Amino acid sequence: MDFKLTEDQEMVRNSVREFAENEIAPLAREYDEEEKFPKAQLEALAEMGLLGMIIPEEYGGTGFDSVSYSLALEEIARADASVAVIVGVTNSVCCYPIFCFGTEEQKQKFLVPLATGKELGAFCLSEPQAGSDAMNLKTRAELDGDEYIINGTKSWVTNGGESDTHIVMAVTGENNGKKEVSAFIVEKERGGLSVSSVEHKLGQRASRTTELSFADVRVSKENLLGEIGAGMKVAFNSLDNGRIGIGSLSVGIAQAAFGEAL
To answer: In angstroms, rounded to a whole number, what is the distance separating the alpha carbons of residues 169 and 230?
Structure first.
């Protein structure tokens, strides 16, 4: 098996490394200490097409293969893991589920702005009582005419308060005694959606991590992502993809740590 990178993969790595070393790394300490969200860097990365790396060009992405995607996240993480996790979340657990499960209308309305970097994404699964126990959700979505009304709390939301589009898992009923969980696309400007607290972390402090509250948040039935009751399928499929990004981010951190030690 040939493990050599292709010319395109080398080009991705070199271009992202140059940008990360010149534009991200010099500000990483300051941004971490001040918990400052890196908007300027993200805007530049969006211009490079890195907020829609795994999305086809027809939906505003760059259509990278998994190796190119991993290389880009590694190089960003070497400079600042906070920036890398923001980019990774938008790509893997917001863009990707809309691409996989969304209707054509949802892709045009939500995916294109995300993939082109005009908007940021967030993934809302965990709750105060439902971390590793992902099925123990209390957030509910009740159908009211042509809309769903969402109530509940989501914890440890990366990009919370900065994100424009949220993938939200909520209970929509029961089936044979088991909770029926569905996925929804929720826009930032929906009334009743608010940041209830901000986490002050040990690391990756320039990446915003928050608790989000949903108080009678109304979304159209057209915002249902995938089929009713298929929310955990959407969630776990997205998380599987997200692990590629987290692995790549971890390698980038390790590379930077080794470089500093050396």
So the answer is: 10
Q: How far is CA 248 from CA 55, 203, 210, in A?
A: 18, 17, 23
Residue 219, CA atoms < 13 Å, CB-side half-sphere? 27
**Ramachandran region, residue 209 (left: φ > 0; alpha: ψ -120 to 50; beta: rest):** beta
CA 139 to chain centroid, in Å, comes to: 20
Q: What is the mean pLDDT of residues 167-179?
A: 91
Query: Any idea which residue has 């981010």 for tokens?
Result: 249
**Please, is 27 exposed, middle or buried when counting C-beta atoms within 10 Å of its C-beta (0-12, 13-18, 19+)?**
middle
Question: Measuring CA to CA, how many Å separate 16 from each of 9, 35, 61, 79, 175?
Answer: 11, 23, 16, 10, 47
Residue type at 110? F
What pLDDT, in 10s, does the model give residues 13-26?
999 999 999 999 99
Question: Phi and psi for 39 in degrees, rounded to 5?
Answer: -60, -45
User: Which stretch of DSSP H or E encloses residue 260?
Assistant: helix 231-261
C-alpha closest to that of 69 among 252, 230, 255: 252
pLDDT in tens, 58-88: 999 999 999 999 999 999 999 999 999 999 9
C-alpha torsion sign, points 108, 110, 16, 18: positive
Q: φ, ψ for residue 108 (rounded to 5)?
A: -70, -40
pTM: 0.94
